[in-house]
Prior knowledge:
TIM Barrel; eight-stranded parallel sheet; 10 strands; innate immunity
Amino acid sequence: MLLITHLAFVKMLLKLCISSVHGIFGSILKKVCLWVDKQVPSRTGVIESVKNERNHAERTAKDVTTPTSVNYHFTRKCNYKCGFCFHTAKTSFVLPIEEAKRGLHLLKEAGMEKINFSGGEPFLHERGDFLGEMVRYCKEELQLPSVSIVSNGSMIKERWFKKYGKYLDILAISCDSFDEDTNQVIGRAQGQKSHIDNLFRIREWCQDYKVAFKLNSVINTFNIDEDMTENITQLNPVRWKVFQCLLIDGENAGENSLREAERFVISEQQFQDFLNRHSSIKCLVPESNEKMRDSYLILDEYMRFLDCREGRKDPSKSILDIGVEEAIQFSGFDEKMFLKRGGKYMWSKADMNLEWISRVR
């Protein structure tokens, strides 16, 4: 009897122990589950996290500007003294050719399709051979769709076309008047050499060596009343860029400028009157101050982007130091205005019909 009582007591103790152990393990398990829930996000949380990361990446991609068309002013030196010039000879610096090529390669990797070499006068440095090597590099090695130059034309020789012409898509020559006296007043001249005679000579070379010929004109107080229709028709450029004279503080206006261009400035109405007078010319591409100011990606001689939004040229750090993607954020570039002004056009000579009708002056 006593043995039976002891066995019953032991059985009861075992049940109590088992119940206690269950309770302890249940409490521990509950706490573990709560901790895991806090550490591991739910399926919905994971989906939301992925969406947020994707949206951030998309916003970042939209904010990145692609340098589709770049204007590289690799030198500021010039042999002309145009009174309204807005990229003046404030330094004589020119990058070593290998550094310039490194920067051009960075631009290509960032999405550049068109490079335009300008100055200053780009044919002045090393008599055009420095320029020619960059043109060759961009077309032959980087295989850019379009390589172009803007020049006053005074330093160009036929030997340059023979050596480098096949690599060049477009050559733009600046000419603001077809009156020699007006060119002298503006400063678009060197001594008594005829700027106009040279212009027509270069036009013929462009035809001979299959380079698209383009013309740039800055409209100002000294040529505002001129009718250029006959000469433009005779030259037959693929494009005639017509600019309204633009003031840039520190370049052609203000205390530290090398030019005083205020006397060249015209009103919007005067500019429109000039455009109306030449409305029959189909290749005319007008650019008012509004269209010009923020619609160009400009690199200076140090390969810094120049922001012109405040009416002056504020430089970024060089793309050689911080890369294109970071530097371009300080360019002030307005891509919508770039497209609005016709910045994207048929710019590869492979797509053009260069069998022009011969024009005789």
